[in-house]
Write a structure and sequence with these properties.
The structure holds 2 protein chains of 2 kinds. Chain A has 11 helices and no strands. Chain A is an all-alpha fold. Chain A has one domain. The longest helix of chain A has 30 residues. Chain A is globular, with a radius of gyration of 18 Å. Chain A starts with 5 loop residues before the first helix and ends with a helix. By secondary structure, chain B is of the alpha/beta class. Chain B has 10 helices and 14 strands. Chain B has a 6-stranded mixed β-sheet with strand order 6-7-8-3-9-10, sandwiched between helices. Chain B has a 4-stranded antiparallel β-sheet with strand order 2-1-4-5. Chain B has a 4-stranded antiparallel β-sheet with strand order 12-13-11-14, covered by helices on one side. In chain B, helix 5 packs parallel to helix 6. The longest helix of chain B has 16 residues. Chain B is elongated. Chain B starts with 8 loop residues before the first strand and ends in a 7-residue tail after the last helix. Classes of the chains: A mainly alpha, B alpha/beta. At the A-B interface, helix 1 and helix 4 of A face helix 2 and helix 3 of B.
Chain lengths: 251, 317
Amino acid sequence: MSPEHIIEQAKRAFAIAKKDIRIYYAKGPVVIFGLFMPLFLFLAFAAGNRGLSMPFLISGLLAMTVFFTATAVSPVIQPWEAQARTLERLIACPITMKTLIAGDMFASVLFGIGIAIVPLGIGLILGIIPIHPLLLIAGIILASICFSSLGLLLSTPATNVPSNIMMLSSLLKFPLIFISGVFIPVEQLPFVGQVLAVCSPLTYFTDIARYCIMGTNTFPLPVNFAALTVFSVLFTALAVRLHARTVSRRI
Amino acid sequence: MKEADHHQDAIIATNLRKTFADIVAVDSISFSVKRGEIFGLLGPNGAGKTTTARMLTGVISPDGGNAAIFGYDIVHTPIRAKQRCGVVPETANAYSDLSAWQNLMLMGELYGVPKHYAEERAKTLLGALGLLERKDQKVQGFSKGMKQRLILAMALLHEPDLLFLDEPTSGLDVQSTQLITGMLRELNDGGTTIFLTTHNMEEANRLCNRVAIMRKGEIAAIDSPERLKMAIERLHTIEVSFDPAGTDDKLASLPGIKSARREGDKWMITTEDVDSTIHAICAFGVEHQLKIEVLRTLAPTLDEAFLRVTEGGSYEP
């Protein structure tokens, strides 16, 4: 089979994902930003609860955890690779930029999906059982893809210092938490907040999680899935294009 | 893993150019490397060697010109071109959080090598490079020499037809250097084309069939090491001593000899034509019943040739 064939490139993307999982999942910043950060934010908000129901909080925790986790790994892989001087070796291999991005994204998606078990498990312990589990699984997968592609888009600046990208990504991620209906329902946001909420991919996954856990939603379900799909395609296309442009400056 | 083709040239670079902001790193260079050749790219720091190697390996895109690897354009068909190459970059590392074995298996997967074949090949390479006993250890505990040997093994796992090495023995211990240069010779004997960038003149002199010397982004000279050394110096020196030693000054009047001076029991002869002068000296010895004890040409070293060319000296092949 030709090395350019899509199946051959898919196998190589899987090899990259396997490598990422082996190397990067246990890294400190990934665990801190991906797992502990949303958990502490949730505890802080739960402690100051203004009468919001536990299913509301658990669906918010789920959205926040998947968001933080999927965007924790993907932005820092390439700066780490550049810093460790492994990126040049990787780029010299017979793989396309799409393959490289797909591999990093796949690892990040798996991490996002896997971590969703933690908030769902907390919910189950508290007696909160999803009403639409299959839709929720589909939402988690799509959201992980979308957030991973966002993470890869955030890593396009040509820096070899992972903390620079972490800083940039935190600058975007924290405001998104507050305008996406995670802690405050979108309907209760001021008009400007509601306009911004429409621009955030996290809003649509939070809405899917609310529907699947509580049975209530702000936007129609097809709109939520369509929005996440559009964001995923847009972020991925931009990430591939920008990484191809900036990768030589990292080496 | 080998792909059959009929290209006689492993590399053809035509007007290859790369600029970084206002700096011209590589200035429209053209050259070719024949299949089965060991080709050395020499030059001082900043001459453009690594940039050239990176363009040829598809790591960075040229701003102008083109390069073909076994006929595959590195910009338009990079996957096919890269599939034929093994690369040992100057500053690259193996993954330090993975074991030597995991690093090799990763390369196998990235080059589409079947798993059972990759395992066999990895064992052979690790054995040949003295790393088999350390195969399951994480690379972070390896010495620089061991890491470099592992990177070479990673580059060879898919049996490339063309091997790029950027300063492969820089800063290594003697054992690692000898292992690597020995393996390069074996590979070349087996038909692998080798493209080497190096500062090490002795290494280039011993290994390369041809070398190119880069200066300020341009190729200042390209030839075999011997011809390069001879061509930069128009007058060559021949040292000769006879038995009995008391040869008269008739030696200086032989055809082709520019000057001859006695230094102790030896004669130092300068000439433009080494070949005819040696023949004349031998005939002189026979005619005067003199036994030649020492006869050697004192050609400039590759270091001298390199310095002459990189300092702006002229070179005429």
